[in-house]
Amino acid sequence: MCFPDLDTDERQALIRESFVHYVAAVLEAGHNWYSPVESLRARCDEVVGQDQFDAALATGKGVMLLAPHCGAWEYLGIHLQHIPEFAILYKPPEDPRLHQALVERRKRAGGTMIPANPGAVRSLFAHLKKGGSAGVLPDQDPSKGQGRFAPFFGVPAFTGVLAPRLANKTGCHVFFGVCERLPKGRYRIHYLRADETVGGDDLDAAVAGVNRGVEQCVRIDPAQYLWSYRRFKTRPEGEPPFYQ
């Protein structure tokens, strides 16, 4: 549905590579959680868009980084924590032991973890309003009443309104971020400036802008997107289920 121009062989090759990266994400998780932070950061070969990202940070207006399920997002979280008081919104796992380990290992580089609970929006708003920086997932299937439909690779996808509303109310800079997985355990970070519509007053245009930004991230290497995530689970009223 997302890449209708691919022929059968190309699609099968993409499927195979997607599973390779899925397994890589599982296997590298422990490495990202427990390796020394400095040795992890040394694995980054290049940062694309660093200058414009640093310039936005220097304005003091706050920066929101939208990081989809693409590439090595666990590594990206570690990399971003060199930014003073960088906050990351996350969904707490149900297992309390896993939750404790997740918070301890992910924030060990100096970042702040904000659990996605009823007070999260208030915390994020205050953090961005005072000029802080924060990372938010833009490609989750949101709860009912927390999203709107917008095209994602031409397919209607229920898209969260949190990031556009925060951008609109705080006036912060908005970027997309993706960590491209390279051969032999190396990485390349990409910062992409978001479309101006993401922080605009038109919410429908804003969520469409979010999805266009995620598409840009995916096109860096489509095989590295987490296609196994049920991005199209919620359907417009009257439309049949997307997944069989």
Structure classification: alpha/beta
Adjacency order of strands in the biggest sheet: 1-9-8-2-5-3-4
Reported for the largest beta sheet, the result is: 7 strands, mixed
**Strand/helix succession:** HHEHEHEHEHEEEHEEH
State the share of residues found in helices, binned by percent: 25-40%
**Spatial separation of the terminal alpha carbons:** 14 Å
Mean pLDDT: 93
Please give the number of β-strands: 9
Describe this entry's structure for a reader:
The chain is an alpha/beta fold. The chain has eight helices and nine strands. The strands form two sheets. A seven-stranded mixed β-sheet has the order 1-9-8-2-5-3-4, with helices on both faces. Strand 3, helix 5 and strand 4 form a beta-alpha-beta unit. The longest helix is centred in the N-terminal third of the chain and has 27 residues. The radius of gyration is 18 Å and the shape is globular. It starts with 7 loop residues before the first helix and ends in a 24-residue tail after the last helix. The model has no long low-confidence stretch (mean pLDDT 93).
